[in-house]
Amino acid sequence: MKKIIISIFSVLLISVLWYIKDERVNVNIPIPNKIIIYKNGGSKTLTSNDKNFNDIIELTNKRVNKSKSRNLEEDSDYVNYLYKNKLSWKCLEFVYDANKSFQLKIKNNKVEYNYKKLFFTIKAEGGKDYGADMAYGDKEYISIISGISYDEKIMMKLLNIIDQEIK
Question: Which domain holds residue 114?
Fold first, then answer.
């Protein structure tokens, strides 16, 4: 009887661990042609020649890949509000010369996203109100994916970079 209980417990434990591992987002955001930083009414464009360009990409990839697919939601109604407020928040915009795509699993459905630009909120208001949204689109943003990880260490590093770039 003891062996049966241990076997059942082992199978359950392995199943839970597999589920936790499998729900992580596994997306590598490609290197953009430029990154536009927005901060409280100002903006600055970075290219691959700029000091913080690669750090922003690395931190953003870490942030996205710490997200769990079960937390992600898509919302096309909120995108205009998000993008309209970019100048009053701290945000990053990745801009590409050519079309890109990635797949995400959202609510157990694999969805392919095509884009030429990505938009990430980093900090929306005062305090520790970190952004958890990523907008995507071609010429205009068409929808957002909310529920992106806002790991405090990553967000603080991104905020420090934004503050370095725009004083």
Answer: 2-165
